[in-house]
Amino acid sequence: MNLEIGFESVELGRALHSDFESVAEKLGEKGCSISLHGPFWDLCPGSIDPLIRQVTRIRIQQFFDLLTIFQPVQVVCHTGFDPRHHKAHRDLWLEESLAAWEPMVEQAELLSIPLLLENVWEDDPDFHKELFERLRSPFFGFCLDVGHQNSFSRTPLSLWLEALWDRLKEVHIHDNDGTDDTHLPVGKGTIDFDFLFEFLKDRGIEPLLTLEPHKEEHLTETLAGLERILARIHCPHTRAS
User: Fold this and answer.
1) Could you tell me which residues are beta bridge partners of residue 147?
2) Cβ of 240: how many Cβ atoms within 10 Å?
3) CA-to-CA distance for 18 and 40, rounded, in angstroms?
4) What are phi and psi of 3, to 5 degrees?
5) What does the alpha-carbon distance between residue 202 and residue 223 come to, in Å, rounded to a whole number?
6) Residue 168: which of 141, 138, 139 has the closest Cα?
7) What whole-number distance in Å separates Cα of residue 230 and Cα of residue 143?
8) Residue 190 has what DSSP assignment?
9) What is the DSSP letter of 85?
């Protein structure tokens, strides 16, 4: 089983590079393919406060300094944009975000490691779409979190996919009933995973799938739910057992 490893301020502030190198070496010995998830709590790449932007960029750079150690297939970060708080300063937020991500994209290009931006609080795909259109690079793409879309967005999954499918390189898989980001097993909420995988199949794209259960027992339930869905899509006349 391959891993997506998340980093936050505690690890980035306290651990030594030798600690990270030891972990990366052990995972390499197991033949484990790795993707990485960057820090996000309280970070605001487009903040109107220059000191907040400075701290954010330092943390993100600390994270990017680990890429040569772990050699991930790709990395995921959050935009930090929350329309409930930042809508009044959206244009400034967009400009400052571009300034923050541009050197990170340049670094991603040099390492040939895609940098993906995940949706969280965004109401619709427009903020991501503008970032990708203004900062064009094959190493700058989209990570769709279907749980976040279902619980936080006002825009249907179909419109997110139509707007960003050509940038889609990863999907975070978990379920909920639309009221909160509860990370339920696939099939225990209201997310239309049949539509999702039908869409991916029709477009001929195969993004990396990252399972995000928050309980150990939910992993096997999620795998079973995915098996049933994929069986229906690829063998629609065969009932999964």
Assistant:
1) none
2) 11
3) 23
4) -125, 145
5) 22
6) 141
7) 20
8) S
9) H
- Of the pLDDT bands very low, low, confident and very high (cuts 50, 70, 90), residue 1 is confident
Mean per-residue pLDDT over the chain, rounded: 95
Domains and CATH numbers, the chain: 3-234 (3.20.20.150)
pLDDT in tens, 142-153: 999 999 999 999
Burial category of 38 from C-beta neighbours within 10 Å (exposed 0-12, middle 13-18, buried 19 and up): buried
Q: Find out whether 142 and 132 touch, Cβ atoms under 8 Å.
A: yes
**Are the C-beta atoms of 153 and 160 separated by less than 8 Å?**
yes
pTM for the structure as a whole: 0.95
Distances (CA, A) of 39 to 57, 74, 95, 165, 198: 11, 15, 21, 25, 32
**In this structure, what token pair is assigned to residue 165?**
């499918």
Structure tokens at 89: 């300063």
Judge whether 46 and 88 are in contact, CB under 8 Å.
no
Extract the tokens encoding 168: 């889609």
Residue positions counted in the chain:
241
Give the position of tokens 């030594």.
Answer: 16
CA distances from 124 to 154, 155, 167 (A): 7, 5, 15
